[in-house]
Amino acid sequence: MSEFDTVKTQLHQARSTINDAVAITQQAYSSTDDKKSRLEQLGVAATAQALDLALEKLREALEQLASARGETDKAAETLDKVPDTAPIPDVIAILGTTVSTLGTTKISIDTSGESVKGAMEQAQLAGTEGIVNLCHDASSTIDGARQGAQTAINAVNGYQKRLETEAQELEGLSSEASQPRANPTPMSTPQATVSSSRGRTQVSKPHPAADGRATFGTSTSRNYKKTFFDKHPDTEGKVVVHHAVEQKTLKLYQGAVTESEMHSYENLRGIPKGETNNRVHLSAIRMSWNEFYRDNPSPTKQQLLDHATKVDNEYGHQFNPPIR
C-alpha cells in the first residue's frame, strides 16, 4: 500500500467513526424522545421538561455531526479522485485543502461532544439512568470520532510535508544543475564579516521583514535555498528555508504572485530544524495558511502579504534570523 493510499484509508476510517457517533447519538435522541412522551402522558411535567432540554442538546449534537460527516465525505471524495499521475504541486495543494477541511470537521465534532455532555446533565437531573447511559455511549463514540479526525489530520500533514520536501529537493537539484555555481562572496561585502584570528565567523544581517511588514523582491534564480544561505551563511545546516507567502499560492492563485517574487530573498524565512520547524511551520503556520485559503478564494497580492505579516508577527521571533 502506498503512502497516499494509507492517507486515504485513515480518512475513510475517520468517516466511519463519525458514522458510529451519528448512529449512537441518534439512538440516544430517539430513546429520550420516547421517554419524554411517556412522562408527559403520565403528567410528570418537571422530568419531561428536563428531557426536553436534553433533546435540544442532542439535536444540536446531531446537526454538528452531520456537518462533520459532510465535510469528511467531501474530503474523502476529493482524495479518491486524485489520479496517480497528478503533479506533486497539485497534490500538495489538495492536501492543504484537506487539512483545512478536517480542521473544520474536528471543530464540529468537539461542539457535538459538548452538546451531548449537556444532554447527559439534563438526563441526570431527570433521574433517567437509561438515557444517561445512552448519552455516555454517545459521548464515547464522539471521542472516538475526534481521535479519528486527528489521526487523519496527522496522516495528511505528514504526507504533505514529505511531498513538499521532495519537491523542494528536486527543484534545488534542477536549479543547481542548470546554473553555474557562483564564486564565494567576498568577505568585504555586507553579507558576512570576519572576526577573531582563530577562524572565520559569518554573521547574518537582519532580515528586511524585521522592519515591520512582509514584502516581495525579485529573484533571477529558482534556487531559493542558495539565495537565503548566501545572505545568512551562518544558518546553513541549522534551518529549513520556507516561503513567507507559500509556494502553493503560485498554483492556487495563478497570476497573483510571480515566480520571481515568490523566490525572492524578501519572501524567504529560516526556521530552526527539528522541533521548532515541526511545531511552528508544519503545524501552527500551516493551519493559519489553510484557514486563509479556505476564507479567501481570490485574494490580492497585498492580502497575501498582509497574512504573511500576520504570521511573522505571531511566530517570527522564533525564526533564524528573527523577524520580530
From TrEMBL:
Any coiled-coil regions, as ranges? 48-78
Compositional bias, Polar residues, is annotated for 175-204
Chain residue ranges for the region called Disordered: 168-218
Keyword annotations: Coiled coil
Task: From the Swiss-Prot or TrEMBL record, give the protein name.
Answer: Uncharacterized protein
**Provenance organism:** Stackebrandtia nassauensis (strain DSM 44728 / CIP 108903 / NRRL B-16338 / NBRC 102104 / LLR-40K-21)
